[in-house]
Amino acid sequence: MGGSIVRSFRFGLWLAVFIVVAAVAGVVGSRYWPTHKQPTVQAVTESVIKAEFSLIDHTGRAVTSKDFRGRWLLVFYGFTNCPDVCPTALNTVAAVIEALGPDADKVAPIFITVDPARDTAEVMAGYVAAFDPRIIGLTGTEEQVAAALKTARVYYAKVNQSAAPGGYTMDHSSYLYLFDPKGMFDKPFSHETSIETITATIRQRIGGR
Q1: 199: Cβ–Cβ under 8 A, 6 or more apart, which residues?
Q2: Dist CA 3 CA 84 (whole Å)
Q3: I want to staple 58 with a disulfide (CB 3.0 to 4.6 A). Which of 46, 108, 109, 137 is the partner?
Q4: Coil, strand or helix: which one is 184?
Q5: Separation CA 130–CA 158 (nearest Å)
Q6: Sheet holding 62-64, edge to edge
């Protein structure tokens, strides 16, 4: 759990720095282009963090982010050999999907691996099925996964660990990402966010409130 706190801090720090930069840019822009409407921090953030990918789902089918247009995306980036953060996050995703009831059809719960070398489609299939059959596991080549993680601005790093399968583990962001039906970033949820809060937020978004 200590690692997840560090990752949460890193992500929070990144957002804080990004907000400061965006704010400064807005101030400077207003001085030189006073007659133009300046973009908000939310708008700038949405333009940077996106759900764009071309991967393989856990059934072996090639999919792209366009296949999920029209649905809200609740995405977690992790790996199947993760000892604590990932199973906790997917349990949360499963609980949220269950709590949404009929609205669950408007949401695509997705688990994208940060460790494609070990997380094959077959491995992902067995893993996501243990939480909820509606969760979609996505993997691909090293290049495909790296591209997907880059567009979502996900932090991840390979860490050598002799006791781990394959001799390494993965450090990664511990946030759940919510993307809108166009694949644009809406907001992150930390590991401390309750199932009730996540469910209420998604239901509100679906209702357009």
Answers
A1: 96, 99, 100
A2: 10
A3: 137
A4: strand
A5: 25
A6: 62-64, 54-57, 136-139, 107-113, 72-78, 176-179, 185-189
Whole-angstrom distance, CA of residue 57 vs CA of residue 77:
14
pLDDT for 38? 46
Sequence ranges of the domains in the chain:
49-206
Interval 105-134: pLDDT, tens: 999 999 999 999 999 999 999 999 999 999
Domain 49-206 coded CATH 3.40.30.10: yes
Assess contact for 38 and 29: CB atoms under 8 A.
yes
The values of phi and psi at residue 160, to 5°, are: -65, 130
With beta carbons less than 8 A apart as the criterion, state whether 152 and 51 touch: yes
pLDDT in tens, 30-48: 343 344 444 444 444 556 8
